[in-house]
Amino acid sequence: MTATRLVPALPSPPRWAVRAAHAAALVTLPSGIWRLLLATGFTAGYTEAGYEAMGFTGRGALYVVGLSMAGELLALLTLGLVRPWGEVLPRWIPLVGGRRPNPRAVTVAAGLGAGALTLGLTQFALWWAFPHPNMTPLGNTIAGFLYLPLVAWGPLLAAVTIDYHRRRRVTGA
């Protein structure tokens, strides 16, 4: 006979945390769509010579498509911090499906991710301070606005991670 240990359910996340998680999943879309346009051959603000120099064709196109997809998938993981599928992993995931993730591992991974994103993406707030000779003036402005939402990704993830940690700590789960 096997004894089943009941784990208390997590308190529901506050509305602000749910909104922040959704916002984190959305901030990668503008720059991702812009990169997808580059991969399809649209110069998207680059001069013709600049577009050729950047190598957005062939393997370069695969790279920018992969970067866009990876960024969005990582951003979508933030939703797991406020959704039931983040409490028990979906069964279709090989080896770990149906199990509860280790809350400490989730908190550490999300915290490190938030720190890395904040450090790595803050530079986009200064987009206009540096010249981009391969871009047209209008393209430079548009690209700057499309990349600007990425600055919020790290802080949004940090806020949702702190909420996740607090809710886990309350239940001891």
Model description:
The longest helix has 19 residues, at 103-121. Helix content is 56%, strand content 0%. Mean pLDDT is 89; it is low at 1-6. The protein is elongated and about 60 Å long. Helix 2 (29-39) packs antiparallel against helix 4. The chain has helices at 15-26, 29-39, 48-54, 59-76, 103-121, 137-147, 153-171. With 173 residues, it is mainly alpha-helical. It has one domain (15-171). The protein is built from 7 helices and no strands.
Write the layout of secondary structure elements.
Blueprint: H1 15-26, H2 29-39, H3 48-54, H4 59-76, H5 103-121, H6 137-147, H7 153-171
Q: What tags apply to this protein structure?
A:
mainly alpha; 7 helices
Q: Identify the overall geometry.
A: elongated
Question: Helical amount among residues, as a percent range?
Answer: 55-70%
* pLDDT < 50 runs, ≥5 residues: 1-6
From the alpha-carbon coordinates, what is the Rg to the nearest angstrom? Answer: 20 Å
The class by helix and strand makeup works out as mainly alpha
Keywords: Membrane, Transmembrane, Transmembrane helix
Provide a brief overview of the structure.
The protein is built from seven helices and no strands. With 173 residues, the chain is an all-alpha fold.
